Amino acid sequence: MQRSTNLIGLNIDEITDLLISAGFNGSYGNKISRWIYRKQVKSLNEINDIPKRIVNEIIALNGDILSDIAFKRFPGADGSVRYLFTNAEGQNYESIFMDNGKRKTLCVSTQAGCRMGCKFCMTGSIGFRGNLSAGRIVEQLLAIPERKLVNRIVLMGMGEPFDNYDEVTKALDIFTADWGAALGKSNITLSTVGILNGLERFLKELKCNLAISLHSPFPDERAQLLPSEHKNPINDMVALLKRYPIGKPLRLSFEYVALGGVNLSHEHAKAIAELLKGLKYHINIIPWNEHSAANYSQPTSEELNNFTRLLNQYGVLWTIRQSKGNEVGAACGQMAGKN
């Protein structure tokens, strides 16, 4: 049997095949998967319902759990914790744990860096440094001390999930499967700028909630903020969303970074309502978080109040989402994989 770097990232079929190829009963695959992903053991030696000789052979051939991942922990005053991971491939990427009472959320990365180049985002300014495997995505949950507290996951960290579609959806299967972490699909949200071919695939499979980066309802202006608009027009995305509607219990939302003096006018509010008419959705307004890689302004309270009043006028449901982790560089748009 060929040696693997880590069991984390393998699905139940792959773990079963691994057992069979080593000459063992494949039925143990379900138990091993549950020990790794649901019970979240730090070592296979903690397994107590599988013969020890099988466990020892698996460790000898594949190594133990989390053997080559390192991270640094940066706690924030608001209770959030930023994690900076470094893997054996030399990639740096981040996740953030956020404690909101009953909601214990982990924001994970799907790539090291990002090639989308969104103008207000620090991650986009560092460029693309490689896709993360399903294992590297799932490890962000299993490695941290708060792992057993987490009851929600958002794929909103570094990277564009649909630019790494196969590995991301494999990770989602592990997060949600009964043999995996067993999180409900409605407790996971994937955020995307809207890569059209990935979006269509996702809407046909619907593995979790969907959040689409909007930031402007006007294609020309959106293209200035999100270069991906040139090849993936927001109008085409809306057409796909109407063709494949998202039903309960899953939810569709649009993210809207509020940039002072840029995208908070009466015309913007009216155009949002017109663009998204016919969809069941919610707008998450995210006041821009300052960083050194972009020269925008945070919106004033007056701008936000006026904009939300206009959204109410046009029947748009909205929430202002206050980002956590600002003082440790972990708020929305600030992740850059640095100390």
TrEMBL record:
Residues 100-327 form the Radical SAM core domain. Its cofactor is [4Fe-4S] cluster. Pfam families: Radical_SAM (PF04055). Keywords: 4Fe-4S, Cytoplasm, Disulfide bond, Iron, Iron-sulfur, Metal-binding, Methyltransferase, rRNA processing, S-adenosyl-L-methionine, Transferase. It is found in: Cytoplasm. Its EC number is 2.1.1.192. GO terms for molecular function: 4 iron, 4 sulfur cluster binding; metal ion binding; RNA methyltransferase activity. One of its GO terms (cellular component) is cytoplasm. The keyword Methyltransferase applies. One of its GO terms (biological process) is tRNA methylation. Gene3D superfamilies: 1.10.150.530, Aldolase class I. Belongs to the radical SAM superfamily. RlmN family. This is 23S rRNA (Adenine(2503)-C(2))-methyltransferase RlmN. It comes from Tenuifilum thalassicum.
